[in-house]
Here is the input.
Amino acid sequence: MNNICHHSVAGAYAALAISSAAPRLASDLFSGVHGADKEAKFNERRMSDVDDRGPVGDSWPPGCGDLDMDSPMPLHAFADVGMSEGCGEPGRFERPGGAVGMSSRSFRPLMPADEWEAIKSDVLAVVAAGRPDSRKIEQAWLSDVAGLARWAYRRGQPRTVESLLLPWVIEAYVADPGNGWSGGTARTIRSRLTQLARRALGDDAVPGYEVPLAPPDPRAPFSDAEIAAVVAWARFMNTPAQRHSLLAAMACCAGAGLNANELASLRGEHVVEVDGHAHIVVEGARQREIPVTDEWHEIALHAASSVGRDRFVFRPERRTVSRNTTNDFFHKMRAKAHGQVPLLSCQRLRATWIVGRLKAGCPVVAVADGAGIQRGGLARYLVFLPDIDAEQRNRLLRGTVE
Here is the structure.
């Protein structure tokens, strides 16, 4: 299934018409069937425990495990790991003379098998050089170094201990916008890799300061191509429930400008039909009623009607609202897509709606009211508006009506 999805997404990305046809296509993908989709706690900083049956729980970081949430994964699906001589008996974490110890667990990152085979020995050598003194540190380093080694492998760079752990290599890796990390995640990974570098190479080889990371602008809207790619990927969701939640999030955030908390709190009764068009009623501190854009309103209506009045529209199997409700889901979906689709966030989907309304010529007052923010709050989005040529600018400033 993963190979099918991997190639299908790439094909769909190229073939799909990049326009308002993408949301219309999304409406065809909806299913009213909602299974008891598992609650998944996704944690991008840790690996979950693994016993003889495979992963325990649903926690798995991006790039660190090919996890099928619908069935347990047998241990033989993971690559065998043996890091160095003197590692101790299987199932024990021993450090005789400071040697690296390994538990009976195996590590297999979420990446194509040929890439992992190419970098596996390098990853294990780098982690071994750091001499981890706990299982938790060992797991975190395996995760971080696997991502770093793949990044270097794809660029044809050397992957020795001395090469991978150079400060400038670590800085370039964590600053790569292709990672799709939040600023906090990037800083955490950089801190762990720097700690590993100091353990492996010595304090003198690593400077005592860190270059400030320039976080990716969280307000940047998604392009039409990115939205189309996600809609195409929705075809390959494992369950109707996953497909429902993915498209519901896009309809409510990219189609009506909801933020993460508003999406997580939205219930079926809050999506109403007014004159044949979907409106979303937002409760709480930013009470307002927002008409959903034409290209998304049918999906919003379908999402609400299929869950009923009292259930949540997004991830309707939930009973509570938490701060990680949306991010956990988006990270899990991107991991299943092998990184072939952009990492979604409610903030960027909301920015897509705001910038789209401004580009369409909606008055600033209307957009600000719809977004539930002060008018001055739209200033941060103006940088994303397209330039206009001098002739059009002069015509508009003169007030010339065509």
Remarks:
- The longest helix spans residues 135-154.
